[in-house]
Amino acid sequence: MAKQTRDADFTAFVAARAPWLRKVAYLLCGDWHRADDLVQESVTKLYVRWGRMSKVDNLDGYVRTVLVNTFLAEQRSPWGRWSARRRDAALPERAAVVPDPDVSVDLRAALSALPSRQRATVVLRYYCDLTIEQTAAAMGCSTGNVKSQSSRGLHALRRLLDHETVAAAAGPSERITS
Hints:
Elements: H1 2-29, H2 32-48, H3 59-76, H4 78-89, H5 101-104, H6 107-112, H7 116-127, H8 132-139, H9 143-169
Helix pairs in contact: 1-2, 1-3, 1-7, 2-3, 3-4, 7-9, 8-9
């Protein structure tokens, strides 16, 4: 009977948190299919440890940490490096004319251009609204590292988004190609 209760608790928790976990995973990797894989792997890791989760104070934080660590481990693996190169090589050329400047400023595209640790830091700090200390704990690094990664990530996002805004504002004959 205890296993049925345990499984029912786990199923209820995952059903309630799955959409949120999927959004966080998408912001980390920029691909819905990879996000689904990350969530699935994280949920599997959580299930293995589910019996000990009653001792955890912040279960959402624990799951978020597992998700981020799974993403970062994937990025460090040979498969992650290979798939990142393949994704970068398969990016299409930009259109010569952007019909709607509001659509051209795409935060998700700029976010996906960040290195994985900067992206994870920005997502945890500004999407998940974690403090510097909570982000450091989730990523297993120092608070100074979180501050520098956040600063660099925000600077890169501003640069990327400013470039997009300038390119969208320029006419077709004035478009800057880089």
